[in-house]
Design brief:
five-stranded parallel sheet, 5 strands, alpha/beta, Rossmann fold
Length: 212
């Protein structure tokens, strides 16, 4: 059982002389957290990596926090119960917050099925620095894609608490961007994300042209 001594109580936040603003000036672009959410098979990771590739080609500093990759290390001790899912998102949110301060454009690709946890993630970031992108895709299409065979296992009861089958997915009510990944091509989805970043003045036309 956790005791008071187990908690990080005797700590003080250290304010670095190298600020986020200075890092952004050095990087020549603003930092932001792009939070891709959706069912398994909706194309979150594919889109996040494709957007990163485009931004990287522009010369921007980027990093993708991918659900499967994170489960190999930082969250390797967690299962898929509701409690563990919440802890998984909490850890990712804190990591993304640190990367925001580092001046990096951070892209996260997680099912993150619960609105409350996504709201918690948003609350950690300064206003406007958390962009929720809902990768919408009908469950039937996600099941058809099912490259990992997870839906089949879930239907057979071999995987418990599987989002969309035995555990709910709470769709975002007001995401900054909703993409129907069953109808749009990958290139079209990437361009919509890039366009949103320009509209929100995270990327400017001059920054992109200078990078080309």
């Amino acid at each position: 059982m956790e005791t008071q001594l187990d908690k990080s109580t005797n700590t003080v936040w250290h304010h670095a002389t190298v600020s986020r603003k200075r890092r952004e000036e050095k990087n020549k672009h603003k930092s932001v957290v792009l939070w891709f959410t959706g069912l398994s098979g909706a194309g979150k990771s594919t889109l996040a990596h494709a957007v990163e590739e485009q931004l990287f080609q522009y010369g921007f500093n980027t990093f993708v926090l991918d659900g499967d990759n994170i489960r190999h290390g930082l969250c390797g001790d967690l299962g898929f119960s509701d409690v563990d899912r919440r802890e998984n998102i909490r850890r990712i949110s804190e990591t993304a917050k640190l990367m925001l301060e580092a001046g990096v454009i951070t892209l996260t690709a997680f099912i993150s099925p619960f609105r409350a946890e996504r709201a918690m993630s948003r609350s950690l970031m300064p206003h406007g620095d958390f962009i929720e992108i809902h990768c919408y895709c009908p469950l039937s299409v996600c099941e058809q894609r099912d490259v990992k065979g997870l839906y089949k296992k879930a239907r057979k009861g071999e995987i418990k608490d599987f989002t969309g089958i035995s555990s709910p997915y709470e769709e975002p009510e007001k995401p900054e961007l909703r993409l129907d990944t069953s109808a749009l091509t990958l290139a079209e989805s990437v361009q919509q994300v890039i366009a949103l970043l320009r509209v929100r003045n995270i990327l400017s036309a001059s920054e992109i042209s200078d990078a080309l």
